[in-house]
Specification:
Elements: H1 3-15, E1 27-28, H2 34-44, E2 80-82, H3 83-90
Parallel strand pairs: 1-2
C-alpha cells in the first residue's frame, strides 16, 4: 500500500468516526508476488535490460513465519486507486 494513500484513508477513518475494528487499507488491483511487483517497477522505468528471476519464498528464510497467501481484502472502505498507478506516482512517471 502506497503510504500517501494509506495516510489519506486513515484520515478519512478518523474524520468519519467509523466504528473501531480491523480495516484493511490496501490499493486495488490484481495481487502480485514480490517478483511481479519488481517486474512492474522495471517496466514503468523502461528498464527492460534488467533480468529478474522468480524465486520461491522458502528460499529466503525469515525470523517470523509468513503465510503462504497474505493478500489483504478491503471490504469496509471505499477502494483506493490501483497499485500500479500509485507505483507510477511514486516513481514520478
Amino acid at each position: 500500500t502506497y503510504a500517501p494513500d494509506m495516510a489519506k484513508q486513515t484520515k478519512y477513518l478518523i474524520e468519519q468516526k467509523l466504528p473501531y475494528g480491523i480495516y484493511h487499507i490496501t490499493n486495488e488491483g490484481l495481487p502480485v508476488t514480490w517478483y511481479g511487483a519488481a517486474r512492474a517497477l522495471f517496466m514503468i522505468l523502461g528498464r527492460n535490460d534488467i533480468k529478474l528471476t522468480p524465486v520461491a519464498a522458502d528460499k529466503f528464510p525469515r525470523p517470523a513465519k509468513r503465510p503462504k497467501y497474505s493478500v489483504l481484502l478491503n471490504t469496509k472502505l471505499l477502494p483506493l486507486r490501483p497499485w500500479p498507478k500509485a507505483l507510477k506516482e511514486f516513481l514520478g512517471r
